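Re-run with default settings, no changes from the original entry. Doing this only to confirm the output is reproducible before filing.
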Amino acid sequence: MSRTFADVLYDLQFVRPKDAAARAFKSTEEPMLSLVAEQMAAGKTGADQVIVSPYTGEPYYSESYKKYKQIYGVGIGKVTDRITLNLTGAHYRSLYTRMKGNQVEIGSTLDYGVEFNKNNPELYQLGTQLGQDYINDHLEPAFWDEMKKELNK
C-alpha cells in the first residue's frame, strides 16, 4: 500500500525534534568533552583567552612551562616537569555535561575545577572553531540520524 502526502503530514505531528536533539546531544557528549579537554590542554578557554591560575590570577602556563611544552608536546598526557591533575588526566575525566533548559552546562566534579572556573568563566566552553567542528562533525549528523528514527517509527 502506498502512502499519500496526507499520511506523511499526519505522521509528522508525532515527530519530536526536541527529543531527537536531546538524544543526539547525549550520544555526542564524549566528543564534546574531548574537544574541551584538548582546548584546556592547549591552555585556552572557550573565549580563546589564556587560562589563569585560580590562586595567583597569573597565566596558568609560565614562560618556562610554555618552552617545556614546546619541546615535549602540548596535550593530554604529555610530559611535564611535575605530576598535575592535567597530566594524570583527572581534571579531564572529571568533566561532565548536563542540560539546563535549552543550554548545555559543562563543568568539573573536582574542587580544583570549580576553583579554576571562577577565574576562567569560559573554561569549559568550546571555542568558536571547536564548537563549529563539534556541531558539523558530531552533533548535526547525530541529530539527523535521530530524526530519521523519529520519522520511521
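The chain has one domain: 18-151. Residues 18-151 form one domain.
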